[in-house]
Amino acid sequence: MPVLAVVIVCSGTVLVSARPSGADQISDAKAKAAQIEAQITATGHRIDALDQQYQADVAHKASLDGQIGATQAKITQTRQQVTGDQVVLRKAAVNAFVTGNSATNQEPLFSGNQKSADAEQEYNQVAEGDLGTAVANLNTAQNQLNAQEATLQTQDQQAAAAASAANAAQNQGVQEQAQQQQSLNQVNGQIATLIAQQQAAAAAAAQAAATARIQAAQQAAAAVATQAAANPTTQSPPPPPPPSSGGAGGAAVAAAESYLGVPYVWGGASRAGVDCSGLTMLAWAAAGVSLPHYSGGQMSDSTPVPISDLEPGDLLFYGPGGSQHVAMYIGGGQMIEAPYTGEHVWIVGARFGGGFAGAGRP
Asked: What is the greatest pairwise CA distance in the chain?
């Protein structure tokens, strides 16, 4: 039985590959991306604080503008009031001279003696004194209002400068955040490229290994058949292969490939998301074959198939009794699967190690 021993050794070999060099690059790039994301977050918080400061400065300036307007209105009102007082006093003085008595000879102010001259001088002093007081009050009020207005103008300029500085800092922060986002996009692009390269390399290696294993299994099976034919009395004939799935297998593969890019969803069995057994169940349902939504149940409902006789549409099972995972063989050493949470349905090289439990044809 030396040939059978070779088959067992080949099918049980597990290739353990070293961690690819690209993994370190991806890890470094992801760390850099995380650092940039932290910077973007910190910049965002700073921009928000600057925005609030800017709004406060604008509100303060608006308040000062209102106070300045009120002060200027008071100055104008005071000037108008004093001007009016001056006119009234002048008219009162003239009117007193003209109509102070019913007859001129009875009014000392209009007589030609010294007494009337003294009275006129005294009246003029009173009138001029009232005017002087009004003017003094005007000057005092105006000086106070001017000083208040100057103070408010200074504060207004400071508030405007503060608002302008906060706005400039906010704009700078926005530009800085945009640059950080651009850097993050570049790093994420590098990560995507590295992952794609790594996946392509892994898929190529897995496909080559799967093809080699299938060929080795086929050669070993052929050798067993040759040995059995040469010794018909000592060897029992191998069991016949299961019937071909024919067009049903091709239809199942086509249906499965229509789900490429659909996200893995735990318990999913729709276009919105599928899990591993949901994908194979839907694919074979499109070919007219009903399967349960459970990888172990699908293995129980399938006819075992040796690796050497794999056809497109055959299912590949993993874990005890196929209880952990199921994928679909599509030919050329490749399989399609819904891998795990966070990924999408994809095509990779067929895996025959690391928990491979066998193949089955629905």
From this structure: 174
Q: Which residues of 233-254 are buried (b: 16+ CB within 10 A; e: fewer)?
A: eeeeeeeeebeebeebbbbbbe
Cα–Cα dist 106/224, whole Å: 160
Query: Tens of pLDDT along 103-121?
Result: 444 444 444 555 555 555 6
Q: Are 231 and 87 in a shared domain?
A: yes
The token duo for 96 is 């007193």
Q: Which of 108-117, 153-162, 229-238, 326-335 has the lowest mean pLDDT?
A: 108-117
CA distances for 243 relative to 66, 213, 246, 304, 332, angstroms: 93, 22, 9, 11, 20
Taking all residues of the chain, what is their mean pLDDT, rounded to a whole number?
78
| pTM for the full predicted model | 0.41
Task: For residue 215, give its domain range.
Answer: 20-238
Question: What residue type is assigned to position 56 of the chain?
Answer: A
Rounded to an integer, what distance in angstroms lies between the CA atom of residue 303 and that of residue 193?
41
If asked whether residues 27 and 160 sit together in one domain, one would say: yes
Distance CA 16, CA 317 (A): 20
